[in-house]
Amino acid sequence: RYRKVPTFGRGTIRHFHNNASAMKKLAARDFEDLLQCAMPVFEMLLPDDHNKIMLDLLFDVAVWHAYAKLRMHTEDTLALFDTTTMVLGHSVRKFSKTTCQHYHTTELPHEYAARGCREAALAVQQPPSLGKGKDRSGPKFKSLNLSTYKFHALGDYPNTI
Question: 29 and 117 in contact (C-beta within 8 Å)?
């Protein structure tokens, strides 16, 4: 769906690759383009109840990003940025509790292949064991992990400015 988004301006929003999740070596402008075009791309992709949660989250991320990108802040913009950060935290937790619990997500194919290569390289380095080898049944289950420093540090961002 990202592929159908037309370019905008000269170098403002560039043409997307065929598969946005397979894009490699992304620059900051690429992530920004993906975020700016995310709402129309994700609209009506999920059932209505999950669609509303997803679009609210994308809107909150876009607003938070706009405040974070401001070059000059006032007391008012910092207060609004702080409020937006709290709203973003609520949206992410709501998304995690409802939408993420409803869908079974797994590793991407290239992640699965890379894990297979790592495990094969480790198996060559270690002495052969008498026990049964690891069973590679398929891609691992992946979930949204909110217990990371990156998510924890969002609350400190407005105060740091």
Answer: no
